[in-house]
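Technical note accompanying the year-one report. For the benefit of new consortium partners, we illustrate the data format agreed upon in the data management plan: each record pairs a sequence with a structure-token string. No post-processing was applied to the example shown here.
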Amino acid sequence: MDVLTILAAPQIQNIVVLIGIDIVVGILAALKNKEFVLGKLGGFMKKGIVAYVLGLGILMVVAEALPSLSLVVTVAYFLVILALIGSILDNLGKLGLPVPKMLRK
């Protein structure tokens, strides 16, 4: 499995889309609340994009070599999706939209 195949995987594309949405909504919330700091955006790029995309990509490669670990990839994917959705909902709450506290991160 090469890098382009990994990046073309629907799981990776879904994560990248959710990261993009999270970044945009997070920036809007920070601007609204006058909390925008450019350095935090850079930190999220390292923490979010690299950790989620690279982490899942590595798991996908390992699972291809060891098919018994394919369930780990699925579980990791859903945990990443849930974390990103929680972050998006948290940012929507910061924008003033009514989001139940149990759905926020």
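Partners are asked to follow this layout when depositing records. Residues 68 and 101 are 37 Å apart (CA to CA).
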